[in-house]
Structures are given as C-alpha cells and as structure tokens.
Amino acid sequence: MTADDFLTVTDLHAGYGEARVLHGVNLSVGRGEICAILGPNGAGKTTLLRALSGMVRVRGAVRLDGADLTRRPPDAVARRGVAHVPEGRGTFMPLTVEENLRLGAFVRRGRGEVEADLERIYGYFPVLRERLRQPAGSLSGGEQQMLAIGRALMLRPRLLLLDEPSLGLAPMVTRELFRIVQTINEQERTTVVVVEQNAHLALDVAGRAHVLETGRIVLSGSAEQIRADEQVAQSYLGYRV
Amino acid sequence: MAGFLQQIIEGLGAGAIYASLALALVLIYQFTGIVNFAQGEMAMFSTYIAWQFVAGGMPFWLALVLTLAVSFAGGMLIERVLIRPVEGAHELTVVIVSVGLFIFVNAAAGWIWTFLIKDFPNPFPGGAIEAGGLTVGFSTLGILAVVGVVMGLLYLLFQHTKIGLGMRAVATNPESARLVGIRVGWTLALGWGLAATVGAVSGILVAPLLFLEPNMMGGVLIYAFAAATLGGFDSPAGAVAGGLIVGVAETLAGAYVGFIGSDLKIGVPLVIILGVLLVRPQGLFGRAAVERV
C-alpha cells in the first residue's frame, strides 16, 4: 500500500444469505485513478461494488480516504461522497430527466452550486438538456446510462462506482461513454472504479486493473500489464495467442 | 334538471370525503406497496382526539391543527414500530398486520371513549347558498374547500419541494433512492405520517354528518377503496377523481334507481370495484406495470 491509497479494501467477504460471493478481496485504489475490475460472469464484480456502497452485508474492512465505510448503510456512504451507478442504471423511470439529475444532488446543500452542476452535466451530455422534461423511462438505453452517470456526478463524488456501463449498449455509444468518464476523471480528479465485461474498453481508460475470479482477486497490475498478460488475454479479452 | 344537479352536488360533497380517505390509502400504497386496511380506524381515532380537544373547551380550528399534528406523529410512530419489522415481508404478512392494527385501534377507541355515539361539532355554518333552484349547503362547500386545500398542499409538497421529490424517488425506486443518499426508512415513516394526517381530515369531515363512534369509518373505508381502485392505487389525483365519481354515482343510484334507494347504496362501491378490476385493473389514472428495459 502506498501513501496515496484513496480506497482500501481489506479481506472483504460478502454474500447473499447462505451464498458467499466474495472470499477475502484485497485491493487498493489510488487517489484520482481509474481502476478497472475485470472478470467473468458470476465472479462477484457487482457484489464487490455493492459491498463498497453498503448494499450487502460484509465482513472485512472498506476505508475511503482514511474513514471507515464498513457496514455503513448506502445513504450514509453516499453522504461520504461515493456515487454508485448500479447494475440496471437505477433510473427513476416515471420522474423527469431533470428530476433524476436533481436527485443525484439530494444530500448536497447550496442551491447555486447545484444549478451550476446541472449546466456542467449538460456540457458532458448535451442530449440530456433536450430531454429535460421527459420521463426518464422514455430515454433510450444509452441516454439512460448517460443520465445515470450524470446523476452520479451531481453528488460531486469523491469516488464514482460504475457497474457495467456498456451493458446493452451499441459499441459506439459505449466508446463515447468511456471517453466522457475519462474526461471527468481528468478534469475533476474523481476516482473511478469501473466493473466491466468489455475488458478492452475498460483497459483503454484504466490506470490499474484487477481480475476477479470466483470471489477472489487473481491478478492485479497496471492496465498495460494486464493487457499483456497471456492468461488474461485468453480468458477475458478473446485474443488468440 | 335542477333536481339532478342537486343530486350531483350532494354526491360531490360525499365524494370529497371518500376522496380524502382514498388519498390516504394511495399515499401509503405508493410508498410501501401496502393496502392499509386500518386507514379508516386511524382516521376515526384521530377524530376522537379532535373531539376530546373540543370537549375540553378548545376552539374547533385549533383542535383541528393539533389533531393533525398528533395524527402525523402517530402515523410515523406506527410505521416505525409496527410496519418496519415486516418491511419486505410477504404481502400477506403485511395485510395481516394492517388488519390487526384495524382491530387494535377500533378496540382501543372503544376502551377509551366507549362505544356510545357522540355528537361531533360541525365546523361549518348551517345555512346554504340558493341559486337557480339549487341549494348548496355551506357544509358541502366547506368539505369541498377543505379537500381542495389538502390536495393543493400535497401537490405543492410532491411537485415543488425537495423532500417531495425524495418521496417520489423512494416510491419509484427505493434502492436507487438509497444510493443517492435518501434515508428511505424515514421517508416511508413520513409517508405514513402524511397519510394519517390526510385520513384524519376525512374523519373530522365525516363525523358531523354521521355520529362519532368507533365503527364510524367502516362504510367510508369501503367507498374509499372503491375510489382508490377506480382512480388507480398509484395515482393521488386518480384517488380524488375516483372519490368524487363514487360519491356522485352513489347519490344518483340512491335517488334514481328505484330498487337501490338508501338501503342498497353501499352496494354501489362494490359494483364499482368489481367492474374496474374486470375492465381496467390499473384504474382510470393508474399506470399498467409496463416499462422499457
């Protein structure tokens, strides 16, 4: 562990009832870094994110910038600056696009800042401005994913958790989304943890990556190292060596 | 023709009362997915509290405000103590809890205030406005005005305040609401508090027309169920429209359909419930459960 570890996860166990999913995950994410969590279906990627934001019961420790987040409920974790874009995007379907975005800033005070942040989000995602008064449920999948990321940014998060942003989207749309995530990371120094099946895209934007398999981290390294690793290449990237 | 319009006005007056109790039912259903069978009894209990205040010499309108405040706190308390432990349990469990609450509140009111009927003061003056052959009692006008104000306040709360936005978020996607930092448990309690308050209004409005006794709300609850079913259990505006329609239908059926008269009027809401469930189960204003994935 280095001095600038922003998020540290120590011996994290989590599961649903009798089903254990994570068996002692250790990882650390540097401040301002994009960290990719790769791995096959059922490896526990989504559960790992849910454990970080308090949505599942855990054993072990989660620390964010020195503060203990372990076993805090999701609303308390959000108030500590962790924005989680969940699997399925968590859209408030019948509410309008603008209401969805404002909900992202629910725990923040300071009206002026929130208004300014809405403008900032429209800067990243101009299509949302055109759809302000529409019910969020009427947006296309890609637009809903933009809305979900926009909603998360409205928290001014210190840590952004993205669960499979590419799911169900066309490759072009996904590339665009990852480009924006990278821009956000660079401009706002937001630390990002992204869970992805599409390892190519994730490794393009990530600094470090961890490979999760049946609830354990089996490989960690810089994005280049992971990309170069033959075993990963075969298992997850679909390369023929 | 004037007679017909007269019946409609009477119907709207009755309907406004059903509407307010239906609104209370819908509020709780939206937030917790629970059909609260105890809603009428909670309203009845609130009405007794108001009666107690007035009997103690308090001016009516002050008693009303205090009663609404007590009802709000009581509704929140019920959610925290009784409903929270069964949150997320099987629907039947929750229904049984609300039926248990019904019996408990009913018995408690009987124990505290006895089952003897009591006179409840009518806050509105006795006269009436007469115009074009129509007679509209101040009482009817007052009831319509009060329900209108309650509706307006709820609309402002839900559409124009941050806490209202948070409540709508919890109603549509509790898990996601938690992730943006909303305290979902307290929001649900707030929903129960609001529902208890709106229900109290319906009890206090109906008490001067009936007599105050522990079983007072039984009939009103059935009409409110019909109203909520007709309007759609997930639509507050629908509950109000449903309440007014049920009130008018009941009055017209009583006046013009010979064999119904005043004895069979209670059958009207049941026919409405059955009809809606057969033809349009989501109600007039309700959303069918279809969404894009």
Characterization of the model:
The complex is a heterodimer of chains A (241) and B (293). With 241 residues, chain A is an alpha/beta fold. Chain A has one domain (5-237): P-loop containing nucleotide triphosphate hydrolases (Rossmann fold), CATH 3.40.50.300. Helix content of chain A is 39%, strand content 27%. Chain A has helices spanning 45-52, 74-79, 97-104, 111-124, 126-130, 141-153, 171-188, 199-205, 223-228, 230-237, and strands at residues 5-16, 19-30, 34-38, 58-64, 67-68, 82-85, 159-163, 191-195, 208-213, 216-222. A six-stranded mixed β-sheet of chain A has the order 6-7-8-3-9-10, sandwiched between helices. In chain A, strands 2-1-4-5 form a four-stranded antiparallel β-sheet, with helices on one face. In chain A, α7 (171-188) links the parallel β7 (159-163) and β8 (191-195). In chain A, α3 runs parallel beside α6 (141-153). Chain B is mainly α and 293 residues long. Chain B is built from eleven helices and two strands, in the order ααααββααααααα. In chain B, α1 runs antiparallel to α10. Chain B is globular, with a radius of gyration of 19 Å. The N and C termini of chain B lie far apart (52 Å). The mean pLDDT of chain B is 90. The A-B interface holds A 53, 55, 73-75, 78-79, 83-84, 86, 90-95, 99, 102-104, 106-107, 137-138, 151, 155 and B 162, 165-166, 168-169, 172-173, 175-184, 287, 291-292.
